[in-house]
# Entry
Amino acid sequence: MPTTVHTTERIAALRRLMQDDSVDVYVVGSADEHGSEYIASCDERRAFISGFDGSAGTALITPSSAFLFTDGRYFLQAAAQLDANWELMRVGVKDVPTWQEWIEKHSQKQENLRVGIDPRLISASDAESLTKNNTKVELVTIRTNLVDVVWGNQRPARPSNVVWQLPEDVAGEGHVSKLKRVRDALDGKGLVLSALDEIAWLFNLRGTDIDYNPVFFSYAIIDAQEAVLFLQGAEQLTLEGVRIEPYSSFWTYLEDWAKKGPVLLPPSTSLAVSSIVPPLPTPAARSIVGDLKAIKNSTECAGFRASHVRDGAALVKYFAWLEEKLASSSPINEYDAALQLESYRAALPHFKGLSFPTISSTGPNAAIIHYSPPTTDSSVIEKEHIYLCDSGAQYIDGTTDVTRTFYFGSSPVQEEVKRAFTRVLQGHIAIDTAVFPEGTTGFVIDSWARRALWSDGLDYRHGTGHGVGHYLNVHEGPHGIGTRIAFNGTPLKEGMTVSNEPGYYKENAYGIRIENVVLVVPKIPKDKAFGDKPFFGFERLTMCPIGRALIDVGLLESSEIRWVDEYHREVKEKVRPLLEGDERAVSWLERECAPLGA
# Structure
């Protein structure tokens, strides 16, 4: 289990700085100045001040209290890591406010609530939401981040690693062509980009400034005349049609450039950038580059298919090895097992690293949705407990993300566990087999993944699916499958990749999740469909057996049994040729892919 971090001295030091600036509330979010979900260690401010190191959450500190707001993926982890200085705010639970709602409510209790923020670390839209129709909230922009002051010389240095160009035969399109498409969409306006994955995609560049994400610290400015890329180590790179400037010169350049004419800002743009750029009458609802990046071209789709088959071979080798290890009663802990899985992947062609920290979890730890085993004193994997492994890799031709839940024990599986697993499987199948008309969003189909669980009074506190980048961030927008209303703004389109990962988690007992990455593909052409519009469905990319020992076949419809058998036939056909010479892996694959009735 995660361990508690003691924060008394840190919070006391922060409160002294707040008093110097006459601030009533100080906001510490998760993101860096580029709005990144995964961040470099130098930007882990919320983790430093609170002790909670999950990827999503916001801390509010007042002179007498401290609150940590996070969603259902992290309730158990945050409860374990926060010390007595903090109150955990379980967002999504009835009557628990978001951090913005908390500020709104408490602003009504006094004449003027001074809210301290770092303008580079809060989006313009979030800042506006705090003050819109509320004259009692005063935003106090503090350019020297107060957490950084408390952190002092213990704060890690900002990475500045080598940036390299992704070959066009891997990307499927050159950066000059991408720039033209962006300019066509801008229709004469300028554009400021700060999202690192959007910049990496647009210029066909990759880096290693942030662990697990092949991106690099950068900004970009684009208009009809020029494209300017601001990055560290600017002298190392030349690109056709692109002017490259030092990362540190962005802010000065922006102030002069913004005066030229209308500028489009993506919704995630920071308050610091938007305060320099004159606002448009109608702000952008989504990022132009984000929308283009989400639609994978034929080369990227081919890379996804190939990389997922190779990845499946590594997974089969790993699970076969782990089963044999547990059967021999040789103790293996969660962290060491994750390293073994990484070694299988690292031996594959085109491997560039993991796409996120491996969630290798046994028994009660599997109930922590985004659990990460500690490097020391990690729990020993128990053969008679459920084992959940959520993992992924970066390959130069694609990014993988897969979750499997297995039972390697010899004792009968508890009926409760088997039933819950089967309900999760039914939800997974419902998404995989979905057919839907053009214009359908992931918000609309999310309930299809939950229907079987709901029939037993079960559910899960996370989305059903997220977009996946092509040798880029494992979490990619703007689309997804989930209950967040934001997912209703982006229809699922041909060429989008998205995960399919329903689950169920029983606190202090076990966790279940089944995750594949799927590709949106045409199913029914518009000339044969109602309303003269095409219908879409999903193509499975992930190739790894599903834990048959946990399936209650009696709960499945005949069509669902056929789905499992057909999927396993496909897995066996594609993965087995990559296992030549590994008799253990071949034997395990053959057994796990046998028909359910066998």
In short: The two ends are 39 Å apart (CA to CA). The first helix runs from residue 8 to 20. The mean pLDDT is 95. The CA atoms of residues 64 and 339 lie 43 Å apart.
